[in-house]
Amino acid sequence: MLDVIIKQLLPIPLEVHLQCHPGEMLALVGPSGSGKTTVLRCIAGLHHPEQGLIRSHKTTWFDTNHMINYSPQQRRVGMVFQNYALFPHLNVMQNILLAMPTPRKNIARTLLNQVHLNGLETRYPSQLSGGQQQRVALARALAREPEVLLLDEPFSAVDKVTRRKLYLELHALRRQLSMPIILVTHDLDEAAMLADQMCVIHQGNTLQQGPVEEVFNRPHSLNVARLTDARNVLEGQIVMVDGQKKLQWFEQQLDIADTDFAVGSHVYWIISPSKILLHQRRRPSRGEHENPVQAIIIDMITLRGITTVLMKVTGNNDLLLQMDIPEHVVQRNQLQRGEHIGLSLLQNAIHLIEQ
User: Fold this and answer.
1) Kind and range of the H or E element at 134?
2) How far is 16 from 308, CA to CA, in rounded Å?
3) Contact predicate 82/157, CB 8 Å
4) SS3 state of residue 87
């Protein structure tokens, strides 16, 4: 396991603690300037924080308490940069051989095969597309036989079509890798698609680490919810009704899962747009009796088969909700702007956050 604790005041404040298990990909997300790339540089030995501990498996690479500081060469780290960082005067094969502890062409060819670059061994970086250069950079990182693989926004410099191909290739390649992998990205969809765990960093501080779905759907704070682009962030109050705690949301009293919030507490609450259930006209479901809500469709937008429905909840408020449903569900139910629809806010999908 990779265990990282970093504390410093300069050049940017950092107080970061993260862990990544072998075979797992951890996505570091957060706004520009939050310290994500600096964390990677600390792990690789390219930057020395004022205080900290970096341990890979059972080997301590950095420990300010015991004056341990392995050089970048001593740390078995493979790193892929967003600008590729290939040697322009070396061809593909030479770039990979240079990174190997013991240069072996047969192993280099195996790596090239893994990243789908067969037959390009003698080409130079200037003769390759952006996607091909990034594949070479990944093969070179793996040529170091690393204990840890670091990916610093590796897809930001390629077009969207190439990026999606690289996503699929990296996802397939991961099955053959047993080391911890840390991915720095600004793209939340990229993190959701590729990573097992997500760590949210803001202003140099670790706010939350956990499984991707948990971070998205159950953020620890309003700040995490905003940084992960939570779209239905609302306010309510915990009330007691017939011996059960409920969420008072304007005139609605919503069923919620067991909570430690005291009666009378004012809370934020969120529900993922994908967790809102549409009441279908033709085939009603048992879920329609769970926190039913009436709404009017304000607008709809479809992207790659998923339709986001923007709705105004009927009642004495002007609050809007977003619901994500497959395009075929929109067509089957003949949904249109201005139409009244029924929804259910599923009890287990409602997440409460302290105000």
Assistant:
1) helix 130-143
2) 35
3) yes
4) coil
Please identify, in words, the CATH class of the domain defined by 276-354. mainly beta
Eight-class DSSP state of 308: E
Cis peptide before 13 (omega within 30 of 0): no
Q: What are phi and psi of 227, to 5 degrees?
A: -70, -25
Other C-beta atoms within 10 Å of 305: how many?
8
Residues 248-251: contacts with CB within 8 Å, 24+ apart? Answer: 250/315, 250/316, 250/317, 250/319, 251/315, 251/316
Q: What angle do CA 266, 348, 226 make, to 5 degrees?
A: 55
Q: Are 145 and 177 in contact (CB under 8 A)?
A: no
Judge contact between 163 and 171, C-beta under 8 A: no
3-state secondary structure of 227: helix
DSSP 262: P
Local confidence pLDDT in tens for the 355 residues of the chain: 999 999 999 889 999 999 999 999 999 999 999 999 999 999 999 999 999 999 999 899 999 999 999 999 999 999 998 888 899 999 999 999 999 989 999 999 999 999 989 899 999 999 999 999 999 999 999 999 999 999 999 988 888 888 899 999 899 888 889 999 999 999 999 999 999 999 999 999 999 999 999 999 999 999 999 999 999 999 999 999 999 999 999 888 999 998 999 999 999 999 999 999 999 876 655 555 789 999 999 999 999 899 999 999 987 667 899 999 999 999 999 999 999 999 999 999 999 999 9
> Is the separation of the CB atoms in 50 and 42 below 8 Å?
no
For 63, residues 6+ apart whose C-beta sits below 8 A from its C-beta are 52, 53, 54, 55, 69
Query: 184, 163 in Cβ contact below 8 A?
Result: no
The secondary structure element, H or E, covering residue 114 is helix 105-114
Domain 2-76+146-227 sits in CATH at 3.40.50.300
